[in-house]
Design goal:
alpha+beta; Alpha-D-Glucose-1,6-Bisphosphate, Chain A, domain 4; eleven-stranded mixed sheet; 4 helices; 11 strands; about 25% helix
């Protein structure tokens, strides 16, 4: 399938999914974080949605944190590696991301096309998985597939914003039920709180690390090589090897430092 760069209607649809509660079941609601699961999809490819209100963070800061791969290496302790591969347009690029899963699960990685749009008081970043000829699946990782993942940031005034995170991912492994439950009950809320904490520390960090470098806002700063959408194709889950991890028991797992996948 050819790769389509999202247009305004795709961003509008994504925003509606974030804001609309119909068909979603709340799985967690505590400490300012809410996690929902899409009812009819809970048993297969899980569709999760999260929301957190960040009371002392501007929407612009949160948007910068989600874009800044240099800073991500500071706060995302479960990330193994991330880098940008190339740019498609002034607001779309292709990148790689890998993360550490709790042992004995295999680590996962993605190649995704990401697109972003600041729109008034809203900021959106969405992605889905693509195939890039120079970045095939690796032997030591399970190549997971993002069907749709993204962030909606809404400004609530001078120093407050709301972050929605919506994700529909095929982890490409017949994961045991306890893993799916743990993601919605523990991993997702902790991840949202970690982003919030990272945002609080970002302004000070950025002042010391290329404070004027923000290629996501200033396209003329972007030094990535140009790539063509014609060189990419949509990554279909059924074309990847499926790893059966359904028999792994929770007792045997060894989590990373802060108990997140």
């Amino acid at each position: 399938m050819p790769v389509q760069i999202p247009d305004d209607s795709d961003f509008t649809s994504f925003k509606e999914q974030c804001e609309n509660q119909e068909g979603w079941t709340a799985r967690y609601n505590k400490g300012g974080v809410t996690v929902w699961c899409r009812e009819e999809e809970c048993k297969t490819v899980q569709k999760l949605k999260m929301r957190i209100v960040c009371k002392d963070v501007t929407a612009e800061t949160l948007y910068d944190v989600l874009h800044d791969t240099s800073y991500r290496k500071k706060w995302d302790t479960n990330m193994i590696d991330t880098f940008d591969i190339g740019r498609l347009t002034v607001n779309a690029d292709v990148g790689y991301y890998s993360w550490r899963c709790p042992s004995p699960l295999k680590n996962r990685d993605f190649v995704t096309m990401r697109s972003w749009l600041p729109l008034g008081n809203d900021y959106m970043i969405i992605n889905y998985s693509v195939k890039h000829p120079q970045y095939p699946p690796k032997k030591d990782y399970v190549r997971a597939v993002s069907l749709l993942t993204g962030y909606l940031i809404q400004s609530n005034g001078a120093n407050c914003c709301t972050l929605y995170y919506l994700t529909q991912v095929d982890p490409k492994g017949s994961l045991p039920k306890w893993v799916v439950n743990k993601v919605s009950q523990f991993v997702a809320p902790k991840a949202m709180k970690k982003i919030y904490k990272a945002c609080q520390k970002y302004p000070e960090w950025k002042r010391k690390h290329n404070p004027n470098l923000k290629p996501w806002m200033y396209p003329e700063q972007n030094t990535l090589p140009c790539i063509s959408a014609a060189d990419l194709s949509v990554q279909r889950a059924d074309s990847l090897e499926n790893i059966d991890e359904s028999g792994l028991s929770e007792e045997k797992t060894h989590n990373s430092d802060d108990d997140e996948t």
